[in-house]
Write a structure and sequence with these properties.
extended; PTS glucitol/sorbitol transporter subunit IIC; 8 helices; transmembrane; mainly alpha; transmembrane helix; about 75% helix; membrane; PTS_IID_sorb
């Protein structure tokens, strides 16, 4: 009988912990995310959507900015998953690499811009708790994540671009060979 009661108490404690976490989000991170999203959307409106999109389209022409500046701005301004809509500014042949760069940045941005991807916030906060327990500052962690993230997304974008273009060229040669045999 005691075992059943202990299981029931443990089961209820699980839901109480979930409720406590939810309450902490409602009074902590959710208002922060809403204010950040409002500020970012207001900035886009102030700049002007046409001007903003024009600059984004121009920035995707260059490899360096296509896999650094554009994904970073997309994630900060739009958050995940809306940031992937910035792929509309990228030439078709670069879209897989752009997506790879953007999706790879949704975690490193979380420390400085928690509104960008709420689901990654759980991972970041777990790591942050360990860093704080060791006596280190979260600001340093957030900045380091951000900077290393930019390097990583550039490398991933560049490598994915090269792989995609190679495979596309190889597929084109194969189709040409098949057509010659018919």
């Amino acid at each position: 009988m005691e075992t059943i009661a202990a299981i029931a108490n443990g089961f209820m404690a699980l839901f109480k912990a979930g409720g406590d976490t939810f309450t902490a989000f409602v009074t902590g991170i959710i208002p922060l995310i809403i204010v950040l999203m409002t500020a970012v959307n207001s900035l886009i409106k102030i700049i002007g959507e046409e001007r903003f999109y024009h600059v984004a389209k121009k920035a995707t022409k260059y490899t360096l900015t296509r896999y650094t500046v554009v994904p970073v701005l997309a994630i900060i301004f739009m958050g995940s998953p809306m940031c992937f809509t910035f792929g509309q500014f990228v030439e078709e042949k670069y879209k897989p690499a752009f997506y790879d760069a953007a999706v790879s940045f949704v975690h490193p941005v979380t420390g400085l811009f928690p509104h960008a991807n709420g689901s990654e916030l759980f991972v970041y906060m777990g790591i942050a708790a360990g860093v704080q327990a060791l006596g280190y500052e979260l600001g340093e962690l957030a900045v380091r994540y951000f900077l290393v993230g930019i390097i990583i997304i550039f490398l991933r974008g560049l490598i994915t671009e090269k792989i995609y273009l190679y495979l596309k060229a190889r597929d084109g040669r194969r189709k040409t060979q098949e057509a010659d045999h018919v």
